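Saturday, quiet lab. Running sequence design on the structure tokens for the scaffold JK sent over.
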């Protein structure tokens, strides 16, 4: 298996994550660096949060974007109006590009969904020129996402399957401190640096927060759809109670931290 990501529908992804990955793309670009004239590869572009931000943040000469999901590739192509951008379906572990073609290869919220992460990093390194940059960022599911943990901890209290789901979710690849640095070094990258990036996710109300999950979007959404009607109703009520935290339903804001790592190609 080359991807553990669950794609349900592009609009649902937008509400669950696309609107926030657009925010995260900006500090990630600052960390990864970008310069006029460069050729950039966006690995695991999804619906294009990073792809389109790249085009807006420098006078790049070419932006190639790939994703494993045909649904997301179709949506990114539909949204694209920039002739420098080309989007195609491909596997991060087997990139359809020649050696040293790019100045940078970037992956926004992708490596934690690739079981053979080392292979993906090796491929990113292969397609970047000597002196170019490979950079990636992944959420810190265990310690950096209180809004998501509220939902995950609630389903974990409801069933043993929920506890097992929490364990898988909290320890997806690359999420432990220093794990990305180790992988980048193992793949021969130089000057490897790791940092943390923080954005806030701001919700209008409980439905804005929970609706994409209830509709089956993302890993937690997929799990929630496996619950029986009574368990779903309990999960729904308990998550709502945690979201409201004793005040009337309305806007809430959560901090979210991602690990980010970059290295230079030898
Ligand atoms: C959380 S989404 C991030 C999408 C986008 N970069 C963003 O930040 O909105 C994870 C993405 O990784 C993609 N993905 C997972 N495994 C992949 C693989 N082996 N090759 C290419 N893309 C992959 C999924 O299809 C999905 O679009």
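Result came back. Writing it out in full:
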């Amino acid at each position: 298996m080359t991807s553990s990501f669950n794609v349900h529908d592009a609009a649902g992804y937008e509400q669950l994550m696309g609107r926030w990955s657009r925010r995260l793309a900006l500090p990630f670009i600052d960390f990864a660096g970008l310069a006029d004239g460069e050729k950039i590869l966006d690995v695991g572009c999804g619906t294009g949060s990073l792809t389109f931000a790249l085009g807006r943040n420098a006078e790049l000469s070419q932006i190639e974007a790939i994703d494993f999901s045909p649904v997301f590739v179709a949506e990114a192509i539909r949204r694209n109006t920039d002739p420098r951008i080309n989007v195609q379906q491909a596997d991060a572990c087997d990139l359809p590009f020649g050696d040293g073609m790019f100045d940078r290869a970037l992956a926004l919220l992708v490596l934690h969904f690739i079981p053979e992460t080392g292979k993906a990093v090796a491929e990113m390194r292969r397609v970047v020129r000597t002196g170019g940059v490979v950079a990636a960022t992944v959420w810190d599911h265990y310690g950096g996402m209180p809004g998501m943990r509220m939902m995950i901890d609630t389903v974990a209290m409801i069933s043993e399957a929920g506890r097992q789901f929490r364990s898988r979710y909290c320890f997806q690849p690359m999420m432990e401190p220093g794990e990305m640095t180790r992988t980048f070094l193992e793949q021969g990258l130089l000057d490897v640096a790791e940092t943390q990036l923080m954005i806030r996710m701001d919700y209008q109300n409980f439905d804005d927060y929970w609706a994409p999950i209830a509709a089956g979007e993302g890993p937690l959404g997929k799990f929630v759809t496996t619950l029986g009607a009574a368990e779903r109703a309990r999960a729904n009520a308990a998550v709502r109670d945690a979201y409201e935290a004793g005040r009337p339903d309305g806007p809430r804001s959560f901090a979210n931290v991602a690990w980010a790592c970059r290295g230079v190609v030898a």
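Notes for JK: The pocket of S-adenosylmethionine is lined by residues 2-3, 5, 7, 17-18, 21, 44-46, 49-50, 66-69, 72, 91-93, 108-110, 113-114 (CB under 6 Å). The first strand starts at residue 39 and ends at 43. Ask whether to fix the surface positions before the next round.
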